[in-house]
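Quick one, T. Sequence first:
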Amino acid sequence: MAEKILIISGSKSDETIVKTITAVLDEFGVEYKYEVASAHRNPAKVEKIVKSTFADAIIAVAGLSAALPGVVAAHTLTPVIGVPVSAKLDGMDALLSIVQMPPGIPVAAVGIDNGKNAALLSLQILALQDKELEKKLVEYREKLKG
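Structure tokens:
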């Protein structure tokens, strides 16, 4: 079975956040693939990964200049969710880089270091076409009410 979600991070140091993403996807039983590729150090690898995926959503985790989500979005029409990492400036540099995309190449952004919300947003995208997943998300939200 092909992955439903592609997770791509700019560095191995982002694995702590990636683990929060994969924990949610595992909880919901959704297939994913994880790759590490830097938008600056290996842009050709990023392009190859993105252009070869059949995922329904992509989560891109990046800090510092956080160019990765935008570079990913430039190569696909698949929805891209950027997760800014608090590597420097408490993550504000990464957050602003992700949300300030040029017109025509949008990237969704979640809070700094908030891999959990990125995973949940990707599941909401999938749930548009998957009624069983939609039901699981409704149940999840009911549990949040306490």
